[in-house]
Amino acid sequence: MGASRQIVTLLAPICFYAAAHAQQALVIEGGTVFDGTGRVRPNSSILVRGDRIESIASSGELSVPAGAQRIDARGKFVMPGMIDVHFHFNVRSDPRVSPSLPLLFLANGVTTLREIGNWIEEENKAWLSEVAAKGLPAPRLLFTGPTIDGRETALPDQSIVVFDENEARRAARRLMDEGATSLKVYSKLPLGLLAAVVEEASKRGVPVYGHLGIVDPRDAIRAGINGLCHTNMLIAAVLPPLQSEAFRQAVLRVPNPGSIEAWANVDPMGERATALMELMKSHHINLDPTLALHEPVREGKGPAVRDQSFRNMTAFTVRYHRAGGLVTVGSHGKAPYAEPGFAYLREMEILAEAGMPASDVLVAATRSAAEALRLKDRGVLAPGKLADVVLLDADPIANIANAGKVHAVILGGKILDRAALLAAAPRMAGSNR
């Protein structure tokens, strides 16, 4: 077979393309293409040149350049690289969350990670340099930097504590100057200082997310916040006023005073939940639910109140999606009922189990995530977009668990060596489903 018909078989070990061939054309042929918008195109091909998608067409209609390398994707499901909007990993070798975790996520098809909490220069950028020095690819790592918080923060090693408006504005500017593409405010930051952070970020078009506590989510929304982390932390907005105020005050004493258990008494179809959803939707708030983080103990061994709380939180989340709200997928890096590297998949499964159509879950993991993080170059498969592509061995629309059956990952037009990525995380290697 001539050079112009060179086939790359994905059943054999896959190597990186050499830098000298960065502009070489790559064709992904004959797969079922899910473009990130919900559209499915059977028997279609994608032409990639360099790190960008050049065109997508039905197989047989695509003009293939001479010398292009070709991937036989027949029988494969082809989709955009997934985007994790809420990712944590500890670069200081925390045994609970290995510093190799981002590489495992990349091997599992999550090509963009927004890390929340690490220090930008000392931790995230240093980690990227170490990975590059080992000759390994890294996911597209976005960062907020440490959270911006108030007095007596619960996360002293992951927070910048501010005491007045000047400090809040300075912290926001500093993080953005260092490369933060979004910011996160934490549970003890007062409303006035939260508003100052939002105002500084809005000047640069940078979204602000909140893990709220002493600030009522409704007040944060009216102050201009863009995203809310953790469905459980919306609790102050769906409780009666007396209980809501008690919760806010309790945050001053403990980091998370029963925010999950309190959901057991919340009606996700009730008046307060409906009013909150309408306010969130009117302000185009991104809900980053992290439901897998709070999945209750299985096999009936946990308290019934946790089971009811979890059902109510998932019902609220899916109802917000059905109402047209912007829901995304965030793994938190780890989850109690997911093997290392599969917390993102477990979050997707929970959304589907709660009634979110699998196709919508895939959109939440791709296009919606890019929209929420204001990333115009990814999240969909379309001409001009980054060639971040995942090939699956089975259809995740038929069963969302198939999103974990990754056959190959393409990052910026380069086919990754998944075995090398898995080997870089030896304590996690072998995690599979």
Describe this structure in words.
This protein has 2 domains: 3-80 and 382-423, Urease, subunit C, domain 1, CATH 2.30.40; 82-372, Alpha-Beta Barrel (TIM Barrel), CATH 3.20.20.140. It contains 12 helices and 19 strands. It has helices at 101-107, 120-133, 165-177, 191-203, 217-222, 241-251, 271-282, 304-322, 343-353, 358-365, 367-372, 418-423; strands spanning 7-8, 25-34, 40-49, 52-58, 69-72, 77-80, 82-87, 110-115, 140-143, 147-149, 159-161, 183-185, 208-210, 227-229, 286-288, 326-327, 389-392, 406-411, 414-415. The strands form 4 sheets. Strands 1, 2, 3, 4, 5, 6, 17, 18 and 19 form a 9-stranded mixed β-sheet that branches. Strand 13, helix 5 and strand 14 form a beta-alpha-beta unit. It is globular and about 70 Å long.
Brief summary:
This protein is α/β, with parallel strands linked by helices and 433 residues long. The chain contains 12 helices and 19 strands. Strand 7, helix 1 and strand 8 form a beta-alpha-beta unit.
Poorly predicted runs of 5 or more residues: 1-22, 428-433
Please count the helical segments.
12
Helix content: 25-40%
Distance between the termini: 37 Å
Q: What is the CATH homologous superfamily assignment of the largest domain?
A: Metal-dependent hydrolases
Tell me the structural class.
alpha/beta
The proportion of strand residues reads: 15-25%
- Overall CATH architecture of the largest domain: Alpha-Beta Barrel
Profile the largest sheet.
9 strands, mixed
- Note the overall shape: globular
| Rg measurement, Å | 22 Å
Number of strands: 19
